[in-house]
Automatic annotation (TrEMBL), chain A:
NCBIfam families: Opp4C
Subcellular location: Cell membrane
Name of the protein in question: ABC transporter permease
PROSITE patterns: ABC_TM1
ABC transmembrane type-1 domain span: 99-296
Annotated membrane topology: Multi-pass membrane protein
Automatic annotation (TrEMBL), chain B:
PANTHER family xref list: DIPEPTIDE TRANSPORT SYSTEM PERMEASE PROTEIN DPPB-RELATED (PTHR43163:SF6)
Compartments reported by the entry: Cell membrane
Keywords linked to the UniProt accession: Cell membrane, Membrane, Transmembrane, Transmembrane helix, Transport
PROSITE patterns on file: ABC_TM1 (PS50928)
Major localization listed first in the record, in broad terms: membrane
Source organism, top-level taxon: Bacteria
ABC transmembrane type-1 domain boundaries: 95-306
Transmembrane segments: 12-30, 99-119, 131-155, 183-203, 242-269, 289-313
UniProt family annotation: Belongs to the binding-protein-dependent transport system permease family.
Protein name: ABC transporter permease
Length: 308, 320
């Protein structure tokens, strides 16, 4: 969406100058991306998963929370393609709705990460001095926490007070607020190096205002990086949510997510005899993370060929 | 150089202080009264009050922090509620179990990944390179717990080659060589999961850093002098390609440990990750705080090693 609107905007600018079809930066990116088959496959798989989650109510006649005690622990059949769980809920439905939760958590965690990371990195890079120093020290502190141990601690301490239906928001916050430092560092580095480049110097020499330099020259040059790390960050966030929920410290039942559905396999009996209860959600996590990674890598190669 | 190291270490002190404040603060948010943990539920109000006083819970929060920090520096993290023993006596045993697993993984991962990464770089876009690229993508995207479950399903349940979980066969109190064999036998599956997980990123990393070097002018000069390709790659290119890899050596240490948390739970490996999860389910706050500090210090140490290593191998690095 943003890509398109930007393109249109830039096209308008170009059209007023000359009628010739000029390759805008985003058009160039798209052209390069389209040549990358693997990245396109990744995007396609991801779109399928997103559609499956969005269209869940139309794809299945069951409700993910509706229990039926006459039909518990059923094997896969025509009525229930992936069987039912111990409370008689249709398992395929739970996986479809679980995908909704998993992807929602991933998306919003990344949005939080981007907002905090870009803000901290941008402010630190642009203002420098003691502000930069203080913020970077903060980044260092956050980077010194290994993610998983701290996330499970926070989740255990804060999460117990929250009802299951709202746990997903806590998980988003935990993942988002613990994963911004990397992005902040990168944005800061970008802004710092851009500030010293000739085109900024030229802009300054032409007497262009500081605010215009920031908005027209510095920010657009970092957007590519931010989009790429947002994409790859979402893969990471989905993985983190799955890990937390698998441990029982993320989103908890009855709300389904791919991670807590795999948790069924911690019972050796289920692991051995009801493979359909843990294999499909596990494969979903794997496919989602892989497709986003493929797409993100392709995007990075298209946006910044130097980074390879 | 020494000056640089000393400065780097001094630099860590404020970071450690902030981290300890944060960890202490997070644990204070925990619900429940720590008094209840050790007392008989039928204790009278006076007994509770006495216990509060004994634990120092009536002090203002900053005094509580200072007391905790003061004791922690001396290595006294209080008693573990689960094990009814001082935390400092509980952690080492489990820590060694984790170290054992991680050291094996660490050595294997580096020994395998670096040569593969270099080969991939020298034969860019060949079949070998493509195979390992696919391998890396799959390895990075595979959740470790799911991979662990798959291995258990196939190798422990279907084909019964390896034990399902644990570190030693229960009831088989083997000693000496038999014990070593038993532990190794239990270690295979978790080690495979962790090794493949870290290989995925290491191969990619080595490949990229080697490629970067190979495309530089001095390599072209070396080739045009008529040097053998082997000499060019392993003598000229490898040294410079090694620089970024050295950093990763440091960064991998904490990464492995924290990744092992979830895997130890899957394989019930009696390591630090497993007691971390236990401390959380049983609300053993003293143990929880100590373990969090342990993980944070480990990360700081890893970063320190990375920086020092970087400065050692690359003389161009500014030692300010």
């Amino acid at each position: 969406m943003t890509e398109k609107s930007k393109e249109i905007k830039q096209k308008k600018v170009n059209n007023t100058e000359e009628q010739q079809d000029i390759l805008t930066p985003w058009k160039l990116v798209r052209r390069k991306f389209n040549k990358n088959k693997i990245a396109k496959v990744g995007l396609a798989i991801f779109i399928v998963l997103v559609l499956a989650a969005l269209l869940a109510p139309y794809l299945t006649p069951y409700d993910p929370y509706e229990m039926d005690f006459t039909k518990t622990n059923q094997k896969p059949s025509k009525q229930h393609l992936l069987g039912t769980d111990e409370l008689g809920r249709d398992y395929l439905t739970r996986i479809l709705y679980g995908g909704r939760v998993s992807m929602k958590v991933g998306l919003f965690a990344v949005i939080i990460e981007i907002i905090v990371g870009a803000l901290v990195g941008g402010v630190a890079g642009f203002y420098g001095g003691w502000i930069d120093n203080a913020l970077m020290r903060l980044v260092e502190v956050f980077m010194s926490f290994p993610f998983l141990p701290l996330a499970i601690t926070v989740s255990a301490v804060v999460g117990v007070r929250v009802p299951p239906e709202q746990k997903m928001y806590i998980v988003m916050l935990i993942i988002g607020l613990l994963s911004w430092p990397g992005l902040a560092r990168m944005v800061r580095g970008q802004i710092l190096s851009l500030r010293e480049q000739e085109f900024v110097l030229a802009a300054k020499a032409l007497g262009i205002r500081d605010s215009k330099i920031i908005w027209r020259h510095l920010i657009p040059n970092t957007v590519g990086y931010i989009i790429v790390s947002a994409t790859l960050g979402m893969a990471g966030a989905i993985m983190s949510e799955a890990a937390l929920s698998f441990l029982g410290l993320g989103v908890t039942p009855p709300v389904p997510t791919w991670g807590n559905l795999v948790q069924n396999a911690r019972d050796i009996y289920v692991l051995k005899n009801r493979i359909w209860l843990w294999l499909p959600p596990g494969i979903c996590i794997f496919l989602a993370v892989m497709s986003i990674n493929l797409f993100g890598d392709g995007l990075r190669d298209a946006i910044d060929p130097k980074s390879r | 150089m020494l000056k640089y190291i000393v400065r780097r270490i001094l630099h860590l002190i404020p970071v450690i202080i902030v981290i300890s404040v944060l960890i202490f603060g997070i644990i204070q948010l925990a619900p429940g009264d720590p008094v209840g943990a050790n007392l008989d539920p039928k204790a009278t109000a006076e007994q509770r009050q006495a216990e509060r006083e004994r634990l120092g819970l009536n002090d203002p929060i900053h005094i509580q922090y200072l007391k905790w920090a003061g004791r922690s520096i001396k290595g006294d993290f209080g008693d573990s509620y689960i094990y009814k023993r001082p935390v400092k006596d509980v952690i080492p045993k489990f820590m060694w179990n984790s170290f054992l697993l991680n050291i094996v993984v660490y050595l294997f991962a580096f020994a395998i990944s670096i040569p593969i990464g270099i080969i991939c770089a020298t034969k860019q876009y060949s079949k070998v390179d493509n195979f390992w690229t696919v391998f890396s993508i799959i390895g990075i995207s595979m959740p470790s717990f799911f991979f662990g479950l798959l291995l258990i399903y196939f190798f422990s349940i279907k084909f019964k080659i390896f034990p399902i979980n644990g570190m030693v066969t229960p009831g088989k109190n083997a000693i000496g060589f038999a014990r070593v064999k038993d532990i190794l036998y239990h270690m295979v599956l978790p080690a495979i999961v962790l090794t493949i997980g870290s290989m995925a990123s290491l191969v990619r990393y080595t490949r990229t850093s080697t490629l970067e070097v190979i495309n530089q002018d001095y390599i072209r000069t070396a080739r045009s002098k008529g040097l053998e390709e082997k000499v060019v790659i392993y003598k000229h290119a490898f040294r410079n390609a090694l620089i970024p890899i050295v950093t990763i050596v440091g960064f991998q240490i904490p990464g492995l440990f924290s990744g092992a948390v979830i895997l130890e739970k899957v394989f019930i490996w009696p390591g630090i990750g497993n007691i971390m999860m236990d401390s959380i389910t049983m609300r053993d706050y003293n143990l929880m705080m100590a373990l969090n500090m342990f993980f944070a210090l480990l990360t700081l140490l890893g970063n320190l090693f990375a920086d020092i290593g970087y400065a050692l191998v690359d003389p161009r690095i500014k030692v300010e």
